[in-house]
């Protein structure tokens, strides 16, 4: 692997994990699809945190 590719991969591994979503969520107005999307997003965040460690 070239030195440039190694450096680029290391930089990518050091990127911060995004936690801020710029959306409003109302549990009172949520339907089944909204709740499923929320669960899927939480699961994706958990997977990303494990990968980033």
TrEMBL record:
Pfam families cross-referenced by the UniProt entry: YfhD (PF14151)
InterPro entries, alphabetized: YfhD-like
Region (Disordered): 1-53
Entry superkingdom: Bacteria
Biased composition (Basic and acidic residues): 1-11, 37-53
Protein name, UniProt field: YfhD family protein
Organism: Paenibacillus lutrae
Taxonomic placement: Bacteria, Bacillati, Bacillota, Bacilli, Bacillales
């Amino acid at each position: 692997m070239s030195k440039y590719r190694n450096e680029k991969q290391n930089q990518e591994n050091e990127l911060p994990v995004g936690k801020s979503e710029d959306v409003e969520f109302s549990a009172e107005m949520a339907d089944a699809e909204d709740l499923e999307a929320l669960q899927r997003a939480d699961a994706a965040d958990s997977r990303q945190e494990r990968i980033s460690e």
